[in-house]
Write a structure and sequence with these properties.
Largest sheet: none
Number of strands: 0
CATH topology of the domain at 1-93: Four Helix Bundle (Hemerythrin (Met), subunit A)
Number of helices: 8
CATH architecture of the domain at 1-93: Up-down Bundle
CATH class of the domain at 1-93: Mainly Alpha
Shape: extended
Helix content: 55-70%
Structural class: mainly alpha
CATH superfamily of the domain at 1-93: NADH-ubiquinone/plastoquinone oxidoreductase chain 6, subunit NuoJ
Radius of gyration: 28 Å
Length: about 200
């Protein structure tokens, strides 16, 4: 077994084990931290597949931004851990059944014999001057430009909708009125008091 195969099995084993810990841990903070481990190992698998841009994007975007946001939200919410523990064992048989069905479906669909490939053939290695980021950018902005623009518009609408939903007017919320702040005069906010000096 080559060193590349060893790295693949190493990253894959840790990713699968950490993914199991994500769905079996009762503490949501621990689950989120194990999800960070999953992301790092999947990034390692993408590096082995010579998809450097996707690996770096996964680490920077998901681990560096999305998971930090998840952790903040989890820690800010008042999560009732006792209720989570009570419902875990009750729904465990259904969860095992669904997981087994999904595993069977993936084996059936992704099996090589269904695609006429009796033996897995590894792709050819890219030449030394190959640039994964440039190839991905060229594909995005030529063949998939329309889909990229649609995704950008959808993300923009989602961002605006999230801001509108969070900026709802509430009775107990204090807000700044910029127009009133600009109309304030100095004499309305500042009072000069003259006092006689005292000698010590």
């Amino acid at each position: 077994m080559s060193f590349e195969h060893f790295l693949f099995y190493f990253f894959a084993f840790i990713a699968v084990a950490a993914a199991l810990m994500v769905v079996t841990r009762r503490n949501p903070v621990h689950s989120a931290l194990f999800l960070v481990v999953v992301f790092f190992n999947v990034a390692g698998l993408w590096m082995l597949a010579e998809a450097e841009f996707l690996a770096i994007a996964l680490v920077l975007v998901y681990v560096g931004a999305v998971m930090v946001l998840f952790l903040f939200v989890i820690m800010m919410l008042d999560v009732d851990l006792a209720a989570l523990r009570a419902g875990f064992m009750k729904h465990l048989p259904v969860g095992i059944l669904v997981a087994a069905l999904m595993l069977v479906e993936m084996v059936v669909v992704l099996g090589p014999r269904h695609f006429g490939l009796q033996k897995y053939m590894a792709p050819d290695h890219a030449p030394a001057e190959y640039n994964n980021t440039a190839a991905l950018g060229l594909s995005l902005f030529t063949e998939h430009l329309y889909a990229l623009e649609i995704a950008a518009v959808i993300l923009l609408v989602a961002m605006v909708a999230a801001m509108v939903l969070t900026l709802r007017k509430r009775a107990d919320t204090k807000r700044q009125v910029v127009s009133q702040q600009h109309q304030v005069k100095k004499r309305d906010r500042l009072r000069i008091v003259k006092m006689a000096a005292e000698e010590k």
